[in-house]
Amino acid sequence: MVVCPECAGTMKYDGRQQRYVCQRCGLALKYNEIEEMRAKHRDEIDKERGQDWKEDQRKKEYLKWWLSKKE
Questions:
Q1: pLDDT digit string, tens, across residues 12-29
Q2: Which H helix or E strand runs over 29?
Q3: How far apart are CA 55 and CA 61, in angstroms?
Q4: Shortest CA distance to 16 belongs to which of 4, 5, 28, 26?
């Protein structure tokens, strides 16, 4: 399921336009355009949160891995 990067609505593929169209706001994008918008938005959020947030996330992921069952 593809989620709209603008309004978080559900996007369905329209074969005639060869694009994903949002059912809520009507935004029509190709899949690579959707991925580019998501990456840009993710980068903006990371800048707002700062470097400390990234380090905290890495520590949490490592701890989760360490405490998981190792096979």
A1: 999 998 999 999 999 899
A2: strand 28-29
A3: 10
A4: 28
pLDDT at 39: 86
- Give the type of residue at 66: W
Tokens read off for 1? 């399921």
Q: How far apart are CA 22 and CA 53, in angstroms?
A: 32
Domain limits, the chain:
2-67
Q: What is the predicted pLDDT for the residue at 71?
A: 61
According to the model, what pLDDT value does residue 58 have? 87
Q: Cα separation of 2 and 61, whole Å?
A: 26
